[in-house]
């Protein structure tokens, strides 16, 4: 049994309510319409036959006419009637009757039976055609009536009162009603079945999605729901599966991040602890060894501090806490400033800047863009030998500025390129100077400004890292 508190119960209940209500109203209206149609058709038939009989009965009101032949013709016509006909004169006196005879007739004390029993039909004496449906004391039953005037020489001399029992027509109407309501009942049964299947088809996928969402909430991101069709419910299932996959991926990234961050933090801490314990235990006997240990502690401390700062920067960027100030930025001036600040160290490759002085300004946050360039430059300098060269450049492409850093270093293998923007990923790097966060931070900074990053590289032929920035409106 279904409960009306459930979605399935409400869907099926409302569906059946609509179907039953609609079919019920249509059945009543159609039944009434058919009854009115049959009644109107029957009355029209009586009027038509009454006009024929009125024409046949005309000689009864002419002097010298052959009334015997007229009555014979009327008798023959009466045999084709389902009811009967009364022929009356202007006073309502019964002249003749054919077909079914009245149960109450005229006698010596009742010379105007029709005008007394059916007075509204006497309007036919004024030349009108009158119809009526109701009980008749003359025939002691409900009947259809039609009064048609009889004219002789353009004068109304009498009327034909046609009658036909309602009972037979009512039987026909009852049968039609039974047929209509039987069909309506069959339609309701069929609609109930279809409504059940429809509601089940909507609710079952939602139940599976609910169970899948519960499993996801419990940490099981391998669950999936079947994807069938292209309707809204199927689209919801597809979206849920995508969300589950995005959650197989964020959870994996979280675990990987925790593992990588733990490793990155543990390495300098272990080294610092080891050197500090060696100094504390006076294992380093000479001054040179102590100085080397202290220098290592300072270097690892700086690396640890830089790692923590970069983690905080990345957290602020991804949480949306970092605020951007977008304004027109003079890109050539920014590139020269970054190149000059990064090119002071000895034993590093030459840094050149290639950017036309008339480049249009970019709509960007200047400090964030400078940090992106510094991160890309630091990455290029780390993997480029002293005799190599690093080029910082910019040019206009379509509706944005394309800014890049190209080096002549050892390059990156193709299988590493898709992951170089991931946190802590260092593409086979063995040096301890990098944290694996510089490119990830650069990517977040660029995307926050509405740009995109990309990289191209060949092993032994260097690498090119590029990013886009929107142009400032002029």
Short characterization:
The chain contains ten helices and twelve strands.
Write the SSE topology:
Layout: H1 7-57, H2 67-78, E1 84-89, E2 94-99, H3 113-117, E3 130-136, E4 141-152, E5 155-165, H4 166-217, H5 232-246, H6 250-280, H7 287-319, E6 327-329, H8 331-342, E7 350-354, E8 362-364, H9 366-382, E9 389-397, E10 400-407, H10 438-448, E11 453-458, E12 462-470
Parallel strand pairs: 7-9
Antiparallel strand pairs: 1-2, 1-5, 3-4, 4-5, 6-8, 9-10, 10-12, 11-12
Helix pairs in contact: 1-4, 4-5, 6-7, 7-10, 8-9, 9-10
Explain what this protein looks like in three dimensions.
It is a single chain. This protein is of the alpha+beta class and 474 residues long. The chain folds into three domains: 11-171, PAS domain (Beta-Lactamase, 2-Layer Sandwich), CATH 3.30.450.20; 250-319, Signal transduction histidine kinase, dimerisation/phosphotransfer (DHp) domain (Helix Hairpins), CATH 1.10.287; 327-470, Histidine kinase-like ATPase, C-terminal domain (Heat Shock Protein 90, 2-Layer Sandwich). It is 50% helix and 18% strand. It has a five-stranded antiparallel beta sheet with strand order 2-1-5-4-3. A hairpin with a 2-residue loop joins strand 4 and strand 5 (155-165). Helix 4 runs parallel beside helix 5, helix 6 (250-280) packs antiparallel against helix 7 (287-319) and helix 7 (287-319) packs parallel to helix 10 (438-448). It is rod-shaped, with a radius of gyration of 52 Å.
């Amino acid at each position: 049994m279904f409960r009306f508190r459930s979605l399935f119960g409400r869907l099926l209940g409302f569906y059946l309510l609509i179907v039953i209500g609609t079919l019920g109203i249509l059945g009543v209206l159609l039944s009434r319409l058919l009854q009115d149609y049959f009644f109107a058709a029957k009355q029209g038939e009586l009027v038509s036959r009454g006009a024929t009989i009125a024409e046949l009965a005309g000689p009864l009101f002419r002097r010298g006419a052959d009334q015997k032949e007229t009555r014979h013709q009327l008798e023959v016509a009466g045999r084709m009637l389902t009811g009967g006909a009364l022929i009356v004169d202007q006073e309502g006196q019964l002249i003749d009757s054919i077909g079914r005879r009245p149960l109450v007739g005229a006698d010596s004390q009742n010379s105007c039976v029709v005008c007394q029993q059916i007075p509204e039909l006497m309007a036919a004496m004024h030349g009108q055609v009158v119809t009526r449906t109701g009980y008749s004391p003359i025939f002691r039953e409900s009947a259809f009536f039609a009064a048609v005037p009889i004219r002789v020489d353009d004068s109304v001399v009498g009327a034909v009162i046609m009658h036909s029992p309602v009972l037979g027509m009512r039987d026909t109407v009852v049968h039609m009603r039974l047929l209509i309501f039987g069909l309506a009942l069959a339609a309701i049964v069929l609609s109930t079945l279809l409504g059940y299947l429809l509601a089940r088809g909507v609710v079952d996928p939602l139940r599976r999605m609910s169970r899948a969402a519960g499993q996801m909430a419990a940490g099981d991101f391998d669950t999936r729901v079947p994807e069938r069709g292209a309707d809204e419910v199927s689209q919801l299932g597809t979206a849920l599966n995508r969300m589950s996959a995005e959650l197989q991926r964020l959870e994996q990234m979280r675990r990987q991040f925790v593992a990588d961050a733990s490793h990155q933090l543990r390495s300098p801490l272990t080294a610092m602890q080891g050197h500090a314990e060696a100094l504390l235990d006076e294992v380093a006997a000479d001054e040179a060894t102590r100085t080397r240990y202290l220098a290592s502690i300072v270097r690892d401390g700086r690396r640890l501090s830089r790692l923590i700062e970069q983690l905080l920067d990345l957290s602020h960027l991804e949480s949306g806490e970092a605020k951007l100030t977008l304004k027109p930025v003079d890109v050539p001036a920014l590139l020269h400033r970054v190149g000059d600040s990064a090119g002071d160290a000895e034993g590093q490759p030459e840094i050149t800047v290639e950017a036309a002085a008339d480049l249009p300004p970019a709509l960007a946050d200047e400090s964030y863009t400078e940090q992106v360039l510094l991160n890309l430059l630091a990455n290029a300098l780390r993997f480029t030998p002293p005799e190599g060269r690093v080029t910082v450049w910019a040019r206009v492409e379509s509706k944005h500025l394309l800014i890049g850093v190209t080096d002549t270093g050892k390059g990156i293998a193709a299988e590493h390129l898709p992951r170089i923007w991931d946190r802590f990923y260092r593409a086979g790097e063995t040096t301890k100077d990098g944290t694996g966060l510089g490119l990830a931070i650069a990517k977040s900074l660029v995307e926050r400004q509405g740009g995109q990053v990309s990289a191209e590289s060949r092993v032994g032929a260097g690498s090119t890292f590029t990013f886009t920035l929107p142009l400032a409106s002029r």
